[in-house]
Amino acid sequence: MAHTAPIEDEPAEAVDEPAGDPSSASEHLLIISGLSGAGKSQASKLFEDLGYSCVDNLPPALLDDYLALRQADPEQYRRSALVLDIRAGDPAPAIQRATAALAATGSTLELIFLEASDASLVSRFSETRHRHPLQATRSGVQASIAEERRLLSGTRDLASHVIDTSGLSIGQLKDRLFAVIPRATHDDQLRIDIVTFGFKYGIPLEADLVFDVRFLTNPFWNPQLKPLSGLEEPVRDFVLGQPAARRFLELVTELLELTVPAYRAEGKEQLRVALGCTGGYHRSIALAEELAGRLREIGGASVGVFHRELER
Fold first, then answer.
1. What is the pLDDT along the chain (312 residues), one digit of tens a residue?
2. How far apart are CA 274 and CA 266, in angstroms?
């Protein structure tokens, strides 16, 4: 996803339109496009949490085949989110063909285009050390970004919504995306975002609930575990093997079971639960993944997990 560190919060050049008729959400084809580093992969993950069938980096030449697959199995692919961008060539012609084909059947295609300022994109590429898809033919990242803007200008013109992600955190991007898509009735369930962080980097400002898990023994001091993250089994076993960790998870799960129905009744759509340890790399991550699994088994809410410090 686009890096969460804010650069400058610039307004999008296109005004987001209100979400569509909720009844149309039952069959929704969404295409996500935009500039490299602007947050397309993260957007795809967010829609995946909503139950969309998602494909990242779908070659435009295969879009017609995907539409045929969707027509053959409409129940499986009735809500789809596809990422088409410059990595496999200009997606505009394929999007135009798909739009016309769907219009002939009475359906619609919705295109979200993500972009960001040059300064924000350069910073993200610098921090992640990823290569720009066009960098092999250009003198550097900034020249590649300029060329990508030119090549995707036609796709941007086709967009239903243009979102500038400069300065947006993951939570803010999610709010922007969910504000412009049609929502089905069952999407009105509460969304729980579990965010992990390191206290030495600051508490997430958007968190509703913050839990300090630094009371657990830190894998950082084990030479074999130090280079691993909480996503990896040895660290997970070390953290979850502590009796205090198991009891903590039981209590937090019980708290959320109690409060989630009340939050929904009060009209709250999203609850952000933050788990923090010293560096946000071991204990908080292991606990967050386990907590998310428990909450998904209970049901009644859409659950997403985001590890802030892994993006550094």
1. 333 333 333 333 333 333 444 334 446 789 999 999 999 988 998 888 777 889 998 999 999 999 999 889 888 888 899 999 998 889 999 999 999 988 888 888 999 999 999 998 988 888 877 888 887 667 688 899 999 999 999 999 999 899 999 988 877 887 788 777 765 544 557 889 999 999 999 999 889 999 999 999 999 999 999 999 999 999 999 999 999 999 999 999 999 999 998 888 776 778 999 999 999 999 999 999 999 999 999 887 889 999 999 866
2. 21
User: Side chain identity at 214, as an amino acid letter?
Assistant: R
Contact 118, 34 (CB under 8 A): no
DSSP string, 187-231: GGSEEEEEEEEEGGG---TT-SEEEE-TTSPPGGGSTTTTTS-TT
> Inter-axis angle of helices 283-298 and 233-240, to 10 degrees?
80
Alpha helical stretches, state H, 15-54? 40-49
Residue in 237, 173, 224, 170 with CA at minimum distance from that of residue 197: 170
Q: How far apart are CA 119 and CA 166, in angstroms?
A: 9
Report phi then psi at 269, rounded to 5.
-100, -25
Q: How many residues would you count in the chain?
A: 312
Which of these, 148, 63, 142, lies nearest to 113 by C-alpha position?
A: 148
Q: What pTM was estimated for this model as a whole?
A: 0.54
* Domain 22-187 falls under CATH 3.40.50.300: yes
What order do you get walking across the sheet with 270-277 strand by strand?
Answer: 209-212, 270-277, 190-198, 301-307
Kindly list the domain boundaries of the chain, sorted by start residue.
22-187, 189-311
Coil vs helix vs strand at 56: coil
Instruction: List 191's β-bridge partners, or say none.
Output: 270, 302
Opening angle at CA 312, ends 30 and 232, nearest 5: 85
Tokens 């997970």 correspond to: 236
